[in-house]
Write a structure and sequence with these properties.
The complex is a heterodimer of chains A (252) and B (197).
Chain A: H1 5-12, H2 18-30, H3 32-51, H4 59-77, H5 79-82, H6 87-110, H7 117-130, E1 137-138, H8 142-150, E2 169-177, E3 180-189, E4 192-200, E5 210-213, E6 216-223, E7 226-232, H9 236-251
Antiparallel strand pairs in A: 1-2, 2-3, 3-4, 4-7, 5-6, 6-7
Chain B: H1 5-20, H2 24-35, H3 39-50, H4 53-69, H5 79-97, H6 128-140, H7 143-154, H8 159-166, H9 170-196
Helix pairs in contact in B: 3-4, 3-5, 3-7, 4-5, 5-8, 6-9, 7-9, 8-9
The chains are: A alpha+beta (252), B mainly alpha (197).
């Protein structure tokens, strides 16, 4: 057996099994260096026990802990304190919120390819809000916005002024949705922005009429030859109202 | 019966504990049976870590309330290692709150290594003075070393138990213990050299 100082420490700490202990004891009997190390370590161990006081808990600490524990036990059983039971759920809910905000920010930050059509609409909507690129043509006048699109798209979007109904027109811009150039009409409703993406119905994507995702709502409808996708964080009911106003004004 | 208001309230709390919470008492009783026997060990560790009585009491009191709150997480096994782990963690967060956390940087095992020096029989401690030197050296050891030495030599915990308490791998426990012993010896020898001058 060679000199293995950590074995000697394990030996004095009583961490060796019977076989290991025997082997080490045989080695100590023949090796002066290890024997001296062993003596030194053992003396230190004894010295520590002799010199270092073991601090027992003061009786008053024991009493005050018992009292505190009983108070804690009573407090936990009170109805008011049982509200604490819901705290993990509340935390989970706020985490979900953070995650959903995180999703939006991440989708902006990484510009990853949208996994589906609705997400690409949401991405466009959020980008338009944050990138300071809400409109290419800022105007509340549909007679300014509609001609602006004329030279830039192969179609002419139906631009409506719904100011009187609570949806003032902000302007318009060109967007690429699923590889197609589309018109984005921008409305305000109270403090919220609504993007209405529209293009000829032939290029319409199949999809549900409404989708709610990450706090945003998407409402889809078609009218005449055009398809419409309204995206906003306003309530779905407000988007429904917008759709109704759009369809009503088209019928006139 | 006339009593001061706060006494009546205290009595009221006690009555509620004794009579109105029958379902509560077994949980508290179980907790006390598992955890209270280790109060001396808890205090000893906190006292060696904090190095004064008042702070040690505060840490232990907080640790025991935490332990009670987390008692659901106790899955049987070594109650002592479980309690001391909570004491240790409570001490750490208590220290951060005091914003005088001495070793804000992660503890570097290698930076604190050291070799044994030649040691003869004459160096063996014999007097009260030498005992007090060793005690002072132990108190001056970096906390990470002090902790494993207290757990090993005063609490007589196994490597496995120290590993459970400290969250360190057993190999790390062994090497830290070994370095702690070397550091302690170096400190004692420094004192001896100074005394001999």
């Amino acid at each position: 057996m060679n000199c293995v100082p950590d074995r000697i420490e394990a030996y004095i700490d009583d961490e060796l099994d019977a076989g290991e202990r025997l082997a080490l004891e045989r080695h100590l009997a023949t090796c002066a260096e290890c024997s001296s190390t062993h003596t030194r370590l053992l003396e230190q161990k004894i010295a520590i026990k002799a010199a270092a006081p073991y601090y027992a808990a003061p009786p008053e600490l024991r009493e005050s802990i018992r009292t505190a524990l009983q108070r804690a036990a009573v407090a936990e059983s009170r109805p008011a304190a049982q509200a604490a039971f819901w705290r993990p759920l509340a935390i989970a809910a706020s985490l979900l919120l953070v995650v959903s905000i995180g999703w939006n920010v991440r989708s902006l930050a990484t510009a990853r390819p949208p996994s589906n059509f609705v997400e690409s609409l949401l991405d466009d909507h959020i980008r338009s809000l944050l990138a300071g690129h809400l409109v290419d043509v800022p105007s509340s006048d549909q007679h300014t916005v509609k001609p602006w699109f004329a030279g830039k798209l192969e179609f002419s979007p139906d631009v409506k002024n719904l100011d009187a109904e609570g949806f003032p027109l902000v302007g318009g811009r060109i967007e690429y949705i699923a590889g197609t150039r589309v018109a984005a009409l921008v409305y305000r409703h109270r403090l919220h922005v609504i993007n209405v993406f529209t293009w000829p119905a032939e290029s319409s994507q199949a999809g549900p009429a409404q989708v709610s995702q990450h706090g945003y709502h998407v409402l889809h409808w078609t009218s005449g030859a055009m398809t419409y996708w309204a995206v906003s964080d306003v309530a779905m009911a407000d988007l429904e109202l917008l759709r109704k106003l759009y369809l009503d004004s088209s019928a006139q | 019966m006339m009593e001061l208001g706060f006494l009546a309230r205290t009595r009221e709390v006690e009555n509620r504990v004794d009579t109105l919470q029958p379902a509560l008492q077994p949980a508290l009783a179980t907790f006390e049976a598992v955890v209270l026997p280790h109060l001396d060990a808890a205090y000893n560790l906190a006292r060696w870590l904090a190095r004064n009585e008042q702070d040690a009491e505060d840490v232990v009191q907080e640790a025991y309330l935490r332990a009670f709150r987390f008692f659901d997480g106790y899955r049987g096994g070594d109650g002592k290692a479980w309690v001391l782990e909570i004491v240790r963690n409570t001490y750490r967060s208590w220290l951060r709150r005091q914003s005088r956390y001495a070793s804000a940087e992660p503890f570097d095992e290698m930076a604190h290594s050291g070799d044994f020096q030649v040691y003869t029989q004459e160096d063996a401690m014999t007097s009260d003075e030498e005992r007090s030197r060793l005690r002072s050296c132990l108190e001056k050891l970096p906390e990470e070393f002090r902790e494993v030495l207290v757990l090993r030599e005063l609490e007589e915990m196994s490597y496995r138990e120290i590993s459970e308490t400290s969250g360190l791998a057993i190999g790390t426990v062994m090497s830290r213990l070994s370095r702690a012993r070397k550091r302690l010896e170096q400190c004692v020898r420094r004192y001896q050299r100074e005394a001999a001058r």
